[in-house]
Amino acid sequence: MTRPLSGWGKYPVVESEVLGFSSETELRERLGVHGVIAQGLLRSYGDSALSEHAITSLRFNRFLSFDPATGLLSCESGVSLSDMLDVFVPRGWFLPVTPGTKFVTLGGAIASDVHGKNHHRSGSFCSHIESMDVMFPSGQVQTCSPSENPELFRATCGGMGLTGVILRATLRLVPIESAYIDQETIRARDLSHIMELFESSTGWTYSVAWIDCLTSGKSLGRSIMMRGEHASGGSLTLPGRRKLNVPINFPGFVLNSLSIRAFNMLYYAKAPSQASKGVVDYDSFFYPLDSVNNWNRIYGARGFTQYQFVLPLNASKEGMEKILKRITASGMGSFLAVLKLFGPQEGLMSFPMEGYTLALDFPIRRGLFELLDELDRMVVDYGGRLYLTKDVRMSAATLRSSYKGLNEFLSLREKYDPGGRLSSLQSRRLEI
Q1: Rounded to whole angstroms, how far apart are CA atoms 94 and 175?
Q2: CA–CA distances in Å: residue 161 to residues 125, 331, 367, 417
Q3: pTM score
Q4: Fold held by 180-234+246-395
Q5: 252: pLDDT strictly greater than 80
Q6: With contact defined as beta carbons under 8 Å apart, do 394 and 51 qualify?
Q7: Domain limits, CATH 3.30.465.10, in the chain
Q8: What's CA 264's distance to the chain center, in Å?
Q9: Angle between helices 368-381 and 313-330 (to 10 degrees)
């Protein structure tokens, strides 16, 4: 049977038949369908894990082994980051890299090659994968790592599930002494100031900034930076916390330029004018939105898209200024806008490059995609690119202009999946 299915952005919606598997034999049977894609917890914002036929990994979710001497953890691809944290933080271990939600499967984290607040120091998620097993549509299974079958490894990291289904992987956790983070909060008056703060904060393990994308003039890009380190002492367990819930889709008129501008003004004003220090638990620091169930309903029944791009370091200042001015002029600003600094990275389809990345949430509305098409052209002109995990409307031409490893990826995809049996709404739209 089919049912309506969407990513976290609730756009687009597709009628999909979703089948699970709990063994390799069962997965081989599921892979007989043409036009199928693997999916996990569906926290990617767009259409990269959507298709008329899908295979969910959520029943393939066992921990396999852990070495407390090295921090090496092996598990099946349906294990979530949340599961890992629940089991291993109390033992004194943390994820080497984590995105802004912990409700992501191991397979999804690899397929997206997710990044976090420590990319400038630790790189992306796949930088910490020791090895993984991938099943091709033919049913063959191959192990790959940075040294064993490295072509398959490079193509699968950030390859959006198009080289094969990730079965299991081994990653290296990092030791911690506490479930808490020593956090420092600093208010930045404009874009130049926040970039100066990022560049003087490269010694910190974690750094991120909320940015007001509706200010102009001297206040363009005013921001609040949060930077942090794992606390050196304290409990390895978190206090119980009651979750909030958004029970219904918000009416479309709730989020408009006036309400977003008011929110941004209040949020900036409440931050202390001088740097302030405090201790917060890791959930509050890394996953503030995970404390609200169904927060995507805030954007209404039409859904939303998160537009995330990265610009090279030498073009970031000029490019960010130009893009922020265009967003401000459009009146379609976001109250969830996040700025981060990436370190160097090489990869075929992985998103990060050395430079600044900005992520903004936009409710789906009339005129939005025309604005984003404009922003795409600016991003490409400045040598940047868009994040496939968040994308829902980029053109094939934009992808070809911005991902320099695309041709190599396509040749490897044909090698491992001749005929393109694996595909998603996104891969068809982008002609990959």
Answers
A1: 6
A2: 15, 36, 31, 11
A3: 0.96
A4: Vanillyl-alcohol Oxidase; Chain A, domain 3 (3.40.462)
A5: no
A6: no
A7: 63-176
A8: 23
A9: 160
